[in-house]
Design the sequence.
C-alpha cells in the first residue's frame, strides 16, 4: 500500500480533477511516473521537487528541443532552476492534454517560445526558436540571410501594432487562425 | 496630462508573465460572465468614450494594492458562478495549480455535485437528460481507451498524420459496435430464441461458407430471409403460412414481439441515430478547422505551430526537423521569387494537360463500370459456390488498380499547391468507388428472395475488401521495403498513404451500412474485420514505413474524412435503404415483409391497429399524414434551413469586416502611443532645457552682481 504521502488522497484527486484538464486515470498515471523519478527518501515528502536534469530524461521529453524551456516555464521554484513539484508536473500535463483550451495552450506556447522571459517575442527569441525547430546539425540550419528574411516576414505578418515584437495577444491571434496548433501541441504519458 | 499607465487595463506585454495582469483579466471575464448569466447591462452603463477599445472597461485606475482587491473580487465572482462555469473558468486560467487552489477556496455548503439542479428551465431537463445518457454512453466507450499504448507508439514515431488514420478506424469501430448492439438486441436475439416453423434445409458446414457466406449460412439469423413475418412467439401451430402482419393474433397473453415492425423500426432508428451522431461530430470538427479569413501568414503559422510535440523517437524528431527546415526554405524561396506571370500559352498547355488527365480518369471509370455490369450479368446465373466470389474479386481488383493509374496520370500534371493535388486525388478515388457501388446496386434488384442474395453479396464484398487490404499491405509495404532495401539499396522506406487508406475504410463502412438491412449480423463481421485491419496495419506501419516527408494538415483532413463518411457514405446508404423500404416490393417467399406491398406498410398497419384500439392516437396519425407525407412541409422546412444558413453566412461576412477594421485600429493606436510618448519626451526635454537655461542665467546674474 505505502505511506499516505506517496499515494494521492481522494480529496486531492478530485481537487486536481477540478483544477486541471486531466482525467482521473491521467492524474494517477502522472503520480506513478512522478514518484518513479523521486529519490527513496523524497517519496514521503509532499512537496518534493525533481530537478530539471531528471525531468528531461522522461521519454516524452528526451528528444524535444524545447525540454528545458518547458521545465522552466512550469517550474514554481524560487531559484528558477526548472525543478518541478508534482503540481507543476500536473500543470505541464494539463496544458499539453487533449482537452485543454486553445487559450491555455497558446498562453503556455508563448511562454515556452519566449527564451529571454521578457514577455514579448523579439528577433533574438525568434531566431532561437527557428534554430530549435530546424535542429542542431549544420546542414539543416538556415543561412543568416534566410533567417533575417524569415524573421522580418514573421514580424510583418504578425506584428499588428508595429512595435518590432510579437506580444501575447498577437501571438494568440496568429495561433487562433492555425487549426493544426491544437493537435500538435499535445504530450500524452 | 493623463498618465498612460492608468488607461491601459491589461498591458499585453506584462500579461505574458505577470500574475496580477492575469488575475485582473480573469476578474473582468468572470464579471462579464456573471452579468451575462443575470441580465444584460444597458447601453447607458457604458462610458461614452470615443475609443471603443476601452469603452467597456471601467476607468478605475489600476493602483498598486489593486491586486489584492482584484483577487478578492475574483474569488467572490467565482463563488457566485454556477459550478460548471466555475470549473471551466478555473481550468482555463493560465496559473499554476498552487495558485488556483488559493483562489478556489469554496465553503463546503456551496458544493453541489449534480449541476442539473441549477438549470433554470426544468422543462428542458428531460431533453438534457436524454442527451446526457447518449453522451455518457459515448464517453464510457471512449474512456475504455482501447489500444492506448499502441496509438501512443504510432504517434511517437510518425506524428499526428498517421495517428489520425488509426483514430478514424477507432471511430468506425464504435459506430459498428452501436449498430451491432441495436440489431443484435432487437432482431437477432428474439429470432434466434424463437426459430421459425419452416423446415430449414440443414446443410453441413464446410469451410467455404466463411468465404462465400452462402451454403449453410443462408438460412440462419445472418440474413434477411430467415426472419419471420408474424408476431413472436406463435401461439398456435395451426396457423397457415401465408398469414401477414395485419392478422395478428392478439389473444395470446404471453409477451408478443411483432417481428416486421421491429425490423422496420430497428433499422430506421439505427440509421437515424447514426446520422445524428455523425452530423454532430462533423460539425464539431468543422468548427475546429474552419477559419474565417484565408490567412496569408503562412510563414508565421508554419514557425509557431509546425512542431509536433507528440513525436518522441529521436530519429523521427530528426526527420521532422529536416522537414520543417526544407519547408521553411521552400516558402522563403517562393516569396522571394518574383511572380512571373505565366504566359497564356503555358496556362493553356497546363489546362490541356488537366483536361487530358480527367478524360483518362473518367473514361477508365466508365469502362470499368460497363465491364462490371456485363460481368455481373454473366455471373447472375451462376450458383456454384466458388464462382460467386468472382464478382467481388473483380470489383476489389478494380478498386486497387485504378487509383494507382490515377496516381500515374497525376504525375504529369502540375498543381498550384500540394493540397489541391490531395483533393483532386481524393475526388477521383471517390468518383470511382461511388460509380462501382452504383452499378452494383443497380444489378442487385430483381431476383427471387433477392434480399438474402444481396446480403450474401455484401458479405462477400466485405470479405474480398479485407483480403485485398491484406494483399495491398503485404505487397505495397512489406515487399516494397524489402525490394528497395535489397535490390535498389536505398535507405528510404515507403510512406504510409493516409488518404488512400482512409478512403478504403470509408468504402468498407459504406458496404456495411448498405448491407445492414439485408443482413443484420453484418456489423459484427465489420467489427471483426476492423479489428484485424487495425493490428495488421499497425504492425506493417511500424515495420515497413517511415514518417511522411510532406506536410500533412491533420485537422483539415480529419474534417474532410468525417464529411466524406457522412455525405456520400451514410447519406448514400440511407437513400438506398429508404428507397428500398419505400418503393420496392419485398419478395413474397422470404423475409419479415412478405405479403406486404412495401416494407413501409408494416409501420402503417401498426398505426392503423393502434388507432383502432386507442382513438385518441388518431391525432398522431393525422399529424403523420399531414407532416411526414406532405411534401409542402418538407419544402417549408428546407426553406427555413436555407434561410438560417444564409443568415449565418452574412454574420460571418460581417465578422470578417470587423476583424480588418480592428486590425487597422490597433495599428493606429500603436502609432498614437508612439506619438504621445515622443510628445512627452520632447515636452520633458524642453522643460529640462528651459530649467537649465534659467539656472545658468540666474548663476550668471549672481556672478555678475557680485563682481
Sequence:
Amino acid at each position: 500500500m505505502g505511506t499516505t504521502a506517496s499515494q494521492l488522497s481522494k480529496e486531492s484527486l478530485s481537487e486536481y480533477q477540478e483544477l486541471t484538464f486531466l482525467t482521473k486515470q491521467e492524474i494517477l498515471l502522472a503520480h506513478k511516473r512522478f514518484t518513479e523519478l523521486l529519490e527513496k527518501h523524497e517519496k514521503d515528502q509532499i512537496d518534493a521537487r525533481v530537478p530539471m536534469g531528471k525531468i528531461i530524461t522522461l521519454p516524452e521529453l528526451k528528444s524535444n528541443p524545447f525540454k528545458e524551456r518547458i521545465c522552466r516555464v512550469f517550474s514554481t521554484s524560487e531559484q528558477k532552476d526548472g525543478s518541478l513539484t508534482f503540481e507543476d508536473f500536473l500543470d505541464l500535463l494539463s496544458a499539453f492534454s487533449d482537452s485543454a483550451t486553445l487559450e491555455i495552450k497558446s498562453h503556455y506556447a508563448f511562454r515556452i517560445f519566449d527564451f529571454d522571459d521578457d514577455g514579448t517575442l523579439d528577433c533574438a527569441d525568434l531566431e532561437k526558436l527557428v534554430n530549435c525547430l530546424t535542429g542542431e546539425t549544420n546542414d539543416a540550419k538556415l543561412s543568416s540571410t534566410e533567417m533575417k528574411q524569415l524573421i522580418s516576414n514573421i514580424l510583418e505578418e504578425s506584428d499588428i501594432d508595429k512595435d518590432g515584437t510579437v506580444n501575447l495577444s498577437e501571438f494568440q491571434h496568429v495561433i487562433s487562425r492555425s487549426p493544426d496548433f491544437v493537435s500538435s501541441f499535445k504530450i500524452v504519458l | 496630462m493623463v498618465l498612460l499607465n492608468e488607461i491601459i487595463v491589461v498591458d499585453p506585454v506584462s500579461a505574458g508573465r505577470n500574475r496580477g495582469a492575469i488575475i485582473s483579466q480573469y476578474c473582468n471575464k468572470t464579471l462579464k460572465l456573471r452579468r451575462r448569466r443575470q441580465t444584460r447591462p444597458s447601453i447607458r452603463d457604458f462610458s461614452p468614450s470615443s475609443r471603443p477599445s476601452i469603452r467597456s472597461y471601467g476607468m478605475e485606475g489600476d493602483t498598486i494594492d489593486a491586486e489584492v482587491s482584484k483577487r478578492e473580487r475574483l474569488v467572490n465572482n467565482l463563488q457566485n458562478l454556477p459550478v460548471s462555469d466555475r470549473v471551466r473558468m478555473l481550468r482555463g486560467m493560465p496559473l499554476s495549480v498552487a495558485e488556483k487552489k488559493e483562489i478556489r477556496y469554496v465553503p463546503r455548503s456551496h458544493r453541489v455535485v449534480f449541476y442539473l439542479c441549477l438549470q433554470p428551465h426544468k422543462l428542458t431537463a428531460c431533453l438534457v437528460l436524454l442527451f446526457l445518457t447518449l453522451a455518457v454512453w459515448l464517453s464510457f466507450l471512449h474512456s475504455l481507451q482501447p489500444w492506448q499504448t499502441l496509438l501512443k507508439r504510432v504517434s511517437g514515431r510518425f506524428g499526428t498524420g498517421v495517428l489520425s488514420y488509426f483514430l478514424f478506424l477507432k471511430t468506425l469501430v464504435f459506430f459498428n459496435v452501436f449498430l451491432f448492439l441495436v440489431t443484435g438486441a432487437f432482431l437477432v436475439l428474439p429470432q434466434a430464441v424463437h426459430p421459425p416453423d419452416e423446415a430449414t434445409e440443414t446443410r453441413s458446414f464446410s469451410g467455404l461458407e466463411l468465404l462465400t457466406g452462402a451454403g449453410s449460412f443462408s438460412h440462419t439469423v445472418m440474413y434477411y430471409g430467415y426472419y419471420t413475418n408474424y408476431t413472436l412467439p406463435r401461439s398456435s401451430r395451426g396457423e397457415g403460412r401465408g398469414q401477414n402482419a395485419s392478422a395478428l393474433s392478439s389473444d395470446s397473453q404471453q409477451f408478443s414481439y411483432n417481428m416486421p415492425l421491429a425490423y422496420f423500426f430497428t433499422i430506421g432508428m439505427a440509421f437515424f441515430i447514426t446520422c445524428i451522431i455523425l452530423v454532430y461530430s462533423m460539425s464539431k470538427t468543422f468548427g475546429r478547422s474552419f477559419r474565417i479569413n484565408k490567412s496569408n501568414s503562412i510563414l508565421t503559422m508554419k514557425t509557431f505551430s509546425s512542431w509536433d510535440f507528440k513525436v518522441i523517437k529521436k530519429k523521427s524528431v530528426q526527420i521532422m526537423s529536416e522537414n520543417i527546415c526544407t519547408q521553411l526554405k521552400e516558402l522563403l524561396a517562393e516569396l522571394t521569387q518574383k511572380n512571373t506571370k505565366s504566359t497564356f500559352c503555358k496556362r493553356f498547355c497546363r489546362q490541356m494537360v488537366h483536361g487530358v488527365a480527367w478524360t483518362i480518369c473518367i473514361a477508365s471509370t466508365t469502362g470499368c463500370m460497363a465491364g462490371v455490369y456485363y460481368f455481373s450479368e454473366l455471373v447472375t446465373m451462376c450458383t456454384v459456390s466458388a464462382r460467386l466470389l468472382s464478382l467481388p474479386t473483380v470489383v476489389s481488383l478494380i478498386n486497387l488498380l485504378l487509383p494507382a493509374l490515377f496516381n500515374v496520370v497525376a504525375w504529369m500534371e502540375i498543381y498550384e499547391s500540394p493540397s489541391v493535388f490531395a483533393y483532386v486525388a481524393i475526388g477521383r478515388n471517390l468518383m470511382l468507388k461511388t460509380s462501382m457501388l452504383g452499378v452494383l446496386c443497380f444489378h442487385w434488384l430483381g431476383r427471387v428472395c433477392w434480399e438474402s442474395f444481396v446480403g450474401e453479396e455484401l458479405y462477400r464484398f466485405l470479405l474480398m475488401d479485407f483480403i485485398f487490404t491484406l494483399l495491398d499491405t503485404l505487397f505495397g509495404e512489406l515487399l516494397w521495403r524489402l525490394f528497395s532495401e535489397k535490390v535498389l539499396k536505398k535507405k528510404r522506406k515507403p510512406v504510409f498513404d493516409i488518404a488512400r487508406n482512409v478512403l478504403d475504410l470509408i468504402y468498407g463502412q459504406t458496404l456495411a451500412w448498405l448491407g445492414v438491412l439485408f443482413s443484420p449480423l453484418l456489423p459484427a463481421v465489420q467489427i471483426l474485420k476492423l479489428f484485424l485491419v487495425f493490428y495488421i496495419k499497425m504492425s506493417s506501419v511500424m515495420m515497413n514505413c517511415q514518417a511522411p516527408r510532406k506536410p500533412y494538415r491533420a485537422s483539415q483532413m480529419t474534417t474532410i474524412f468525417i464529411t466524406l463518411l457522412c455525405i456520400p457514405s451514410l447519406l448514400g446508404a440511407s437513400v438506398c435503404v429508404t428507397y428500398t423500404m419505400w418503393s420496392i416490393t419485398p419478395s413474397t417467399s422470404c423475409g419479415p415483409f412478405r405479403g406486404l406491398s412495401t416494407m413501409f406498410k408494416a409501420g402503417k398497419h401498426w398505426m392503423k391497429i393502434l388507432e383502432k384500439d386507442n382513438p385518441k392516437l388518431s391525432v398522431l396519425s393525422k399529424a403523420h399524414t399531414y407532416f411526414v407525407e406532405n411534401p409542402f412541409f418538407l419544402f417549408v422546412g428546407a426553406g427555413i434551413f436555407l434561410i438560417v444558413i444564409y443568415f449565418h453566412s452574412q454574420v460571418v461576412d460581417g465578422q470578417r469586416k470587423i476583424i480588418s477594421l480592428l486590425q487597422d485600429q490597433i495599428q493606429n493606436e500603436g502609432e498614437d502611443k508612439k506619438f504621445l510618448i515622443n510628445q512627452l519626451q520632447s515636452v520633458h526635454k524642453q522643460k529640462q532645457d528651459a530649467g537649465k537655461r534659467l539656472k545658468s542665467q540666474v548663476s550668471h546674474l549672481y556672478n555678475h552682481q557680485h563682481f
Observations:
- The first strand of chain B starts at residue 231 and ends at 232.
- The longest helix of chain B spans residues 631-706.
- Confidence is low (pLDDT under 50) at residues 1-12, 58-64, 108-120, 235-253 of chain B.
- Chain B touches chain A through 68 residues (CB under 8 Å).
